[in-house]
Amino acid sequence: ATPMAIAVASGFGARHGILVKNGEVLETLSGIDHVVLDKTGTLTEGSMSVTSIEVADGALDADGLLARVAAIEVQSEHSIADAMVAAARARNLGPDRHGVSEFNNHPGMGVSARLEGRRWVAGTLSLLQREGVVPDPGLLERARVLEAEVVTCVHVAVDGRHVGLVGVSDRLRPDALELVAGLRAEGIGMTLLTGDRRGVAEAVAQQLGGMEVLAEVLPQDKDRVVGELRGRGLRVAMVGDGINDAPALIRADVGIALGSGTDVSIESASIVLMSNELRKVLMAVRLSRRTLRTIR
Ligand code: ADP
Ligand code: MG
C-alpha cells in the first residue's frame, strides 16, 4: 500500500475511535493470524457484583462474612474488591476498616490481613492452599457448580479454616460474540487468557462459540504466554485493559488496549480503542486487511 493509502486508512480509523500509533501498525495488523483476549474487563464489562455468599457449617453467617471480607478488601483496587465493598454498603455492613492490620495484596490471587485477632485470607483456592488451608468439601462442590455458571468464587479462610466463599459475576460485553464470530470468519485463531479459574474461563469461551483457554495465569506470566504463541510462529495481537496486561500488550506483534483501560495498558498498546466497543477490533483488522491486501 502507498503511504497515502495508509494515511487514509488511519484517518478512517481515527474517525471511528480507533487510534493507531503509526502506519506500520496497520501493516502488522493486516498479517495477524491469532488474537489473545483478556477476559475480565475486556470480553466482560469488568464491573462485578456479588451474586452469592456461602458459609461452611458452624461458621459465621453470610452478613458477618461479607462485613469482614469487605473491611479488608477496601484496601484493594481490584474490581472483585470493589464488588464486595459495594455489596457490604448496600447491606449496611460498613465496610469498617478499623481494626484491620497486616494487610497484604497477593496479585492475581487475593488478599490477607489480621482482624479481630484472627488471620483472614480471601482469594483463590491456590492462595488458601499456599497458606496451608485444607479446602472444605461442601464449599468446593458449591464452587464447582457456581463456576460453571460463570461465577468467580472468592474463598475465605479464618485462622487456617475454610469458612466460606463469595461469588462475584460479571457480564459479557454486548459485542463480544460479534467480535469472536467475526475474527473466526477472517480465519483468525483465538486464545482466552485469564487469571480466573478454568471453570469460569471455559464457560465464557463456550458462550462465545469456543476457543483455546489459558486460565489461572498469574499477572507476571501473561506476557510469557504471548511470547510462546509467537514462538509457535503465530503473528499475535493481544487485546486487554488492565495493568496486568501491559507487558503482554508490549510482547504481542500488535497490542490493542480498551480506552477505559488503565493508563499503563494504553501506553503499552499500539492501537487504542476510544470507546469500549469490542467490534472496533474487528473493524481495525478488516480495515488493515483491505488497505494492505494489494501489496501482498
Ligand atoms: P484477570 O486475569 O481475569 O483480569 P486477575 O489476574 O486480576 O484476573 O485475578 C485472578 C484471580 O485472583 C481472580 O479471578 C480472583 O479469583 C483472584 N483475586 C485477585 N484479586 C483479588 C482480590 N482483591 N480479592 C479476592 N480475589 C482476588
Ligand atoms: Mg482485565
From TrEMBL:
Q: Where in the cell is it found?
A: Cell membrane
Similarity-based family: Belongs to the cation transport ATPase (P-type) (TC 3.A.3) family. Type IB subfamily.
* Protein name per its UniProtKB record: Cu2+-exporting ATPase
Q: Which residues of the full protein are shown?
A: 490 to 785 of 838
